[in-house]
């Protein structure tokens, strides 16, 4: 089955959107990763939720994990407040990469290999017309697994 057939709509934000709105989208929709598009609609980043949580943890706690048990809920409120006034682009981890993507005719093995190689649970399906890309949808790890189970008669 081709990527075009497996692609599903996926909620996304743009680099100019509010970081608070991005966190709200991730949390309310139970998303495995945040898909971020440039303001022109091309994929900018796909960041697993765990990496976004990492952005909320103070550096001193990352350096000394023994501090984590002694930090109380007041600090949790401060973590949430640190998002206010930031755009998604300002909040994303410094080491974000373009989201993994494939063309619309890619097969399931190409999609699976891309997902496995990048450690991101979704792959964007991009159709190019000239040098302009257009997001057709996303193949998530769950959708890929559903397809593989059905193809193997295990659905």
CATH class: Alpha Beta
Question: Which fold name fills CATH's third level, the topology?
Answer: CBS-domain
**Could you tell me the number of beta strands?**
6
Overall structural domain count:
1
Question: What share of residues are in beta strands?
Answer: 15-25%
**Which stretches of 5+ consecutive residues score pLDDT under 50?**
none
Oligomer: single chain
Gap between N and C termini: 16 Å
Output the structural class.
alpha/beta
Largest sheet at a glance? 3 strands, mixed
Domain CBS: 94-155
Pfam family, one: CBS
Organism: Streptomyces bambusae
InterPro entries: CBS_dom, CBS_dom_sf
Overview of the molecule:
By secondary structure, the protein is of the alpha/beta class. The chain has a single domain, classed as CBS-domain, CATH 3.10.580. It contains 8 helices and 6 strands. A 3-stranded mixed sheet has the order 1-2-3. The protein has a 3-stranded mixed sheet with strand order 4-5-6. The chain is globular, with a radius of gyration of 18 Å. The relative contact order is 0.22. InterPro entries: CBS_dom (IPR000644), CBS_dom_sf (IPR046342). This is CBS domain-containing protein. Residues 94-155 form the CBS domain. It comes from Streptomyces bambusae. Keywords: CBS domain.
Which features does this protein show?
155 residues, alpha/beta, CBS-domain, 3-stranded mixed β-sheet, 8 helices, globular, CBS_dom_sf, CBS domain, CBS domain-containing protein
């Amino acid at each position: 089955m081709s990527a075009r057939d497996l692609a599903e709509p996926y909620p996304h934000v743009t680099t100019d959107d509010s970081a608070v709105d991005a966190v709200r989208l991730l949390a309310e929709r139970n998303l495995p990763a945040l898909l971020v598009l440039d303001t022109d609609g091309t994929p900018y980043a796909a960041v697993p939720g765990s990496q976004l949580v990492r952005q909320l943890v103070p550096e001193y706690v990352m350096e000394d994990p023994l501090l984590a048990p002694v930090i109380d809920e007041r600090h949790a409120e401060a973590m949430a407040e640190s998002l206010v006034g930031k755009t998604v682009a300002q909040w994303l981890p410094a080491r974000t990469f373009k989201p993994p993507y494939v063309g619309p005719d890619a097969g399931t093995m190409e999609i699976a290999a891309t997902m496995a190689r990048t450690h991101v649970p979704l792959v964007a399906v991009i159709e190019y017309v000239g040098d302009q890309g257009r997001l057709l949808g996303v193949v998530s790890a769950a959708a890929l697994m559903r397809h593989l189970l059905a193809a193997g008669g295990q659905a």
